[in-house]
Amino acid sequence: MKVNFVDLKAQYDTIRDEVDTAIQGVLDSCAFINSRSFEANFAAYIGAAHCVGVGSGTDALTLSMKGLGLGPGDEVITAANTFIATAEGISLAGATPVFVDCDPETYLIDPGKIEAAITEKTRAIAPVHLYGQPADMDPIMEIARKHDLLVIEDCAQAHGATYKGRKVGTFGHAACFSFYPGKNLGAYGDAGAVCTNDEELAGKIRMYGDHGSAVKYRHDFVGTNSRMDGIQGAVLSVKLRHLDAWSKRRNEVAARYTEGLQDVCVTPRTAVDRYHVWHLYVIQVGNRDELMKHLTDNDIACGIHYPVALPVTPAYAHLGYTAEHFPVACAGADRIVSLPMHADLTDEDVELVIGVVREVAK
User: Fold this and answer.
1) How many other C-beta atoms lie within 10 A of the C-beta of residue 207?
2) pTM score of the predicted model
3) Are 10 and 206 in contact, with CB atoms under 8 Å apart?
4) Cβ(51)–Cβ(195) below 8 Å
5) Pairwise CA distance, residues 147 & 141, whole Å
6) What is the pLDDT of residues 130-180, one digit of tens each?
7) Exposed / middle / buried, residue 296 (Cβ in 10 Å: 0-12, 13-18, 19+)
8) Cα within 13 Å of Cα(90), Cβ side
9) Region at 357 (left for phi over 0; alpha for psi -120 to 50; beta for the rest)
């Protein structure tokens, strides 16, 4: 029996009629560019005043940085262990990423190491709500206030996650979401969004994504073409209605994984006062390659998120970091394995994964 890492076909089958009707509505209306309806729905769901749809999660990060005035000569502190888009958004705005190591239990950026990374050039902190778990926002926001720094949340993996009862995406000056198909809330193509309570910032980001224009053929600055198209917005509006139920099922799967595996490997820990939405379920083992081969041989998909800490990738070699600067992130990179995680996993699927992992995990 094959167990998929993500199963978009199974998900589509459960909402086929709703999705088909929504897409047909876009085709009938020919409203192919922009999706203000989804923007309003998602802003309300998050609890933010404004949502601006853009072309991808990477664009959300880049345009947020630009909209907040970050650029050459500025430094932005972020996590060493994240997908490269987090750092790309900083770099594409012209600023420089400054990396901080992670907490060994949650894999989230370690707030206790942020202040040591602050220099006279630091303008912002970009915490990542990694794997679906919120970063520790209280101390991060306290540091930001103390040093007069901006905060841009990377929420690409944490749609609907909460920190002390409050949804991620409502703490910083801006919050960036990806709707890549494999995300907890995924489109049928690339899409992203920025949420903010700052009306002026929302307007500026929208202009950046529409060629620097708020009025047709008047371009106040050089922007780009980054808008969420109508079909993606329609699909996301359908999926948003199911997101909480899907998150609940992900939590059920995660709980069973932890129960069945905690004595044979290092299972992930959810910090107090946080609602984890389990974009990924990441374990640590001492024989990672052997385990991954065993899973693959048994037709169970798995992955590594992420195999190399960003500061030591070739793209950021010019910054001069070494693995010794990030002992937690770099050590964990050789041990982590992501197991199948999605709302359409059956109980039988979950038990099969647990059984196969238990056979070889060390």
Assistant:
1) 20
2) 0.98
3) no
4) yes
5) 10
6) 999 999 999 999 999 999 999 999 999 999 999 999 999 999 999 999 999
7) exposed
8) 30
9) alpha
